[in-house]
Amino acid sequence: MAKERDELLDKYSVRVFKNRKSHITQLEFSDAPDEIAANTRAIPGIVTARGCCYAGCKGVVVGPMKDAVVITHGPIGCAFYSWGTRRNKAKSSYEGEPNFIPYSFCTDMRAPDIVFGGEKKLEAGIDEIMQMFSPKCIFICSTCPIGLIGDDVQAVARRVEEKYGITAVGYSCEGYKGVSQSAGHHIANNGLMRYVIGKGEKAPKTKYSINILGEYNIGGDGWEQERVLKKIGYEVVSVFTGDGSYETMKNAHLADLNLVMCHRSINYIAEMMKTKYGIDWLKVNFIGVGATCKSLRMMAEYFNDPELTKRTEEVIAEELAEIQEDMEYYKSKLKGKTAGIFVGGSRSHHYQLLLKDFGIDTTIAGYEFAHRDDYEGREIIPQIKADADSKNIEEITVEREEGYKDRYTEEELAGMRAAGVELDTYGGMIRDMKKGHIVVDDYNMFETDQLIEKYKPDIFFSGIKDKYAIQHGGVVSRQMHSYDYSGPYAGFRGAVIFGRDITMSLYTNAWALVTPPWKTAPMLEGSLGGGK
Ligand code: CFM
Ligand code: HCA
């Protein structure tokens, strides 16, 4: 099988070939586990799909918190491009709750600020923000030049906290840190753990309370999950961070259980909260009907209360009855198709389960910036060697806070794990795939083209930059980051919307029906260098 993979890459130079072949695996499931290289530097010039550390911190993790002001400290470009480009939806949940999501705050650093330093300008900007909006929490997110000129954003944050009695977090999340968005996730997690979680005292009112970690409410996904969870009777203390707020997140340590949706972007907080507050985390996936039912049942098993289990089964039955007819119709249209999917760091796994609900097999799956544990499972972590880039990102250690106890003993947890409850662990994407399927890390356009040509998937899920090239090549492509402005795709109702959207796309594949004019007649005529 490695031969097939090597043929795909034979246009690369020897060095590039050697590097890229370690990031592409055709799954064998033989005695030796399938491995893949990940979280290393992209090859310069290869046109990676990855973004930067600032994108991971500002755009992904802290950006969606509606009642916090997120300031981009740097030139205007980074603020402008990260203004509303990710589809994390938010609305005020009560009269007067602040929602700063539509705004873009930036220090607009110009040449003199770069030369003489930008701390004063940042502080003046914050004074202005306090006068106009008086938020309870401010995040300062640094872009590349800030680290180069040495502005001390942490010191500014401390001064602001003292002056205004608010929470302020200074993030050194300069774009060049680490190798991708992933570094920014880690930095953002550290700041939330240090300065936000644990600050509140509002205890949950009901018996079963949870936080949802790694759910960013893209296209309203988080709202669909909350609808179902509340119907069962769970109290959602906070969501990290889609439609989330400082006001709720500061009480997160008082919840009973952490659910982890996107493992890649938030596993640090899940682990630290387990150590500090004894809160277990459960890897869930609310993308896909089967996956949603499984996640809800694991939650009920964790709480181990017959009343809750009964209510869970009632809600599942009700929800399934509501969508059954539509699901069957779309399945009849989609069954037997194949898919490829290249997204950031967790959707390429989650969406395979939703596609399976419709009888679609995912033959090619790739991540931009996932780590080996997202592919191979968390048991691989001790084997991962830290390189210079990962050592650059601070690893914070926390200790058990006084007064907080583990919810279950280690033996009880082991028993639940043995019964299939995915507690404090994640099995990774590869386990849900089949022999012969292709897994790619840090994919690029050239490889995407090669793979599509060879394996001919009926539909390819991708991002902004790659979507149109794929589509113009005649292969149906859906944007998996913003859902092409549709959604939600999560939970029960989301599955139907997803089925409808991809059925529409597959049955109106306009680009496959047109012949480009240059295929039938020459577009240019002339002579070169005096010849014909
Ligand atoms: Fe997690 Fe995300 Fe993703 Fe991600 Fe992203 Fe995103 Fe994504 Mo775009 S947090 S890893 S950094 S699920 S923004 S909501 S769609 S690449 S697969
Ligand atoms: C990011 C955000 C992004 C970009 C999507 C894309 C998103 O990584 O900075 O480039 O297609 O989901 O908006 O992943």
Structure description:
InterPro entries: Nase/OxRdtase_comp1 (IPR000510), Nase_comp1_asu (IPR010143), Nase_comp1_CS (IPR000318). Keywords: ATP-binding, Iron, Iron-sulfur, Metal-binding, Nitrogen fixation, Nucleotide-binding, Oxidoreductase. Residues 52-505 form the Nitrogenase/oxidoreductase component domain. This protein is an alpha/beta fold. It has a domain at 53-178: 3-Layer(aba) Sandwich (Rossmann fold), CATH 3.40.50. The protein has helices at 2-8, 14-21, 53-62, 76-81, 111-116, 119-133, 144-149, 153-164, 181-195, 221-232, 246-249, 263-277, 289-303, 306-334, 347-357, 372-376, 388-391, 410-418, 445-455, 464-472, 491-507, 510-513; strands spanning 24-26, 68-73, 105-106, 137-142, 167-171, 209-215, 235-241, 257-260, 280-283, 338-343, 361-367, 438-441, 459-462, 476-479. The protein is globular and about 75 Å long. The model has no long low-confidence stretch (mean pLDDT 96). Residues 56, 60, 86, 181, 214, 216, 218, 262, 264-265, 343-347, 481 line the site of FE-MO-S cluster.
Gross geometry = globular
Strand order of the largest sheet: 1-12-11-10-13-14
Give the CATH superfamily of the domain at 53-178.
Nitrogenase molybdenum iron protein domain
Query: What is the number of beta strands?
Result: 14
Largest sheet: 6 strands, mixed
CATH architectural designation of the domain at 53-178: 3-Layer(aba) Sandwich
For this structure, the CATH topology of the domain at 53-178 is Rossmann fold
User: Class of the domain at 53-178, according to the CATH hierarchy?
Assistant: Alpha Beta
Enumerate the spans where pLDDT stays under 50 for 5 or more consecutive residues. Answer: none
Structural class: alpha/beta
Fraction of residues in helices?
A: 40-55%
**N→C terminal distance:** 46 Å
Mean pLDDT: 96
Bound molecules: FE-MO-S cluster, 3-hydroxy-3-carboxy-adipic acid
Strand content: 5-15%
Rg measurement, Å: 24 Å
Total of DSSP H or I helical runs spanning 4+ residues: 22
